[in-house]
Amino acid sequence: MGLLDLLRKLKSDQNKELRILLLGLDNAGKTTILKSLASEEVTNITPTQGFNVKSVNSSGFKLNVWDIGGQRRIRPYWRNYFENSDVLIYVIDSTDRKRMEETGLELEELLADEKLSGVPLLVFANKQDLLQAAPASEIAEGLNLQTLRGRTWQIQACSALKGEGVQDGLEWVMKTVASKSKSKKKK
Amino acid sequence: MVEHNVQPGHKTKRIPIKTRNDIDLISVLYTISIFRSFIKWIVRLVSGTCELQRIVAKCKPGVRTVKLEECMYRSRHSLLRTLCEAEPDDLDASIKNVMALKGIVDDTNPRFFDTFKCCLEQIYGFDSLYCQVENLRMEAYDSKNKNHEEVLYKLWNLLQPDQPLESRISHQWGDIGFQGVDPKTDFRGMGMLGLQNLVYFAEKYTDLAKQVLLHSQHPQHGYPYAIVGINITNMVHEFMCNGLLRSHFYNRVEGRPSLDDFQEVFCYLCYEFDKFWIKSEPENVMAFGRIREEFKKTVKVMLQLVESAVLAIDQT
């Protein structure tokens, strides 16, 4: 490898951009997680119509996070944002037991989509600050995450409102992406 | 539950508001403190009046308050600076003190006292309105609270008088643009402020609100009415926090603005947003974020031009 190649490689590593998709039912806390990632005020959120997108810098990576509204009426548009996604983050309101099945079905449909095949999945079990929140392990079981094949996944308990657990989830994302790009290079 | 009460005297951000479009050399120099003092000294020498007097005598209402506020805020006298920060117990006495300090005599300036007082009341009024708005926003919607539920039902009855709600949890809420079967989770960070604004619009401008609702229900180019309304509450709240609405209130309301005056701004923005949305011919609701930003930009420009900044529904 020549010096020029080395420099070029260093440069391309530095400017690496990641496309992260943030999905989940309405009122799961996607926008709050987005704002929490960008270290912004989380107390004046409104329901998302359409989408929000923010760029966050994390350990040399530029993360472009797409937060798409979760209202039933908007869900058919989710597919338009799948292309070239590096990581899928799926947010669940751990207190919303009535809609656990609905959110499971939506996730199942996402994972079956060809455009998202092999994309690492991070599930945020959000709103853990509330008493009635189901523990992450229970949610993982409900979603049958253990049976997933051909995909790295992780479930992370968090409270976006309190800012707890969100960074841990992000760290997992960075680690996963780094090891994935390494294994690609080996091939 | 933690009570977040915003105490009176809390100041919103004060950002410089433009009073005209063009920028000239004098106004650039004026932003530099040492030049400002020099220019003021010269003018005072020539005209024999202080800056406060000149603003009160020459400026139109609205612009007058903006300029007075700026002048006091930058003053080297702590008496003036504190006077614009918080309302004193005895306002009349404080004004008399300012007049004594600046050598302004009642006999030769008969209107100074009243005009100055009116401007100060506008300034204090804006700050206490901010607290009122903020407290209402922080009151989260609670479905166990009977009063909250009543307001929610009221909204339904105002917008859909001919269609009774079949049950509290119902898909019908979607007809007026809530996200799911229970609106309680849709108010989020806007709390009761979001709901009260929607009710105010539906109650005071029933026909207009119904017209906007009808537009929003278009199968292709529609948008969820209530959710967009809550988003607009967020926008008005932002204009309140960054001080941009000062120009509007100073122009529109003589004296202290009330919550109704705040809600009038909301009505205007709902009505105008609907027109803006239709004119933009969006492909579908996914364009909302972009169109909202464009709309916000145009409103911002209006508010920054102090002389003409008025956001009110024209009912003629």
UniProtKB/TrEMBL annotation, chain A:
This is ADP-ribosylation factor-like protein 3. PROSITE patterns: ARF, RAB. It comes from Clavelina lepadiformis. The keyword Membrane does not apply. PANTHER family: ADP-RIBOSYLATION FACTOR-LIKE PROTEIN 2-RELATED. It comes from the Eukaryota. NCBIfam families: small_GTP. Its main location: cytoplasm. Keywords: GTP-binding, Lipoprotein, Myristate, Nucleotide-binding. InterPro entries: ARL2/3, P-loop_NTPase, Small_GTP-bd, Small_GTPase_ARF/SAR. The lineage of its organism: Eukaryota, Metazoa, Chordata, Tunicata, Ascidiacea. CDD domains: Arl3. It is found in: Cytoplasm, Cytoskeleton, Microtubule organizing center, Centrosome. The keyword Lipoprotein applies. Pfam families: Arf.
TrEMBL record, chain B:
PANTHER family: ENGULFMENT AND CELL MOTILITY (PTHR12771), LD01482P (PTHR12771:SF51). It comes from Clavelina lepadiformis (Light-bulb sea squirt). Pfam families: ELMO_CED12. It comes from the Eukaryota. PROSITE patterns: ELMO. This is ELMO domain-containing protein. InterPro entries: ELMO_dom, ELMO_domain-containing. Residues 147-303 form the ELMO domain.
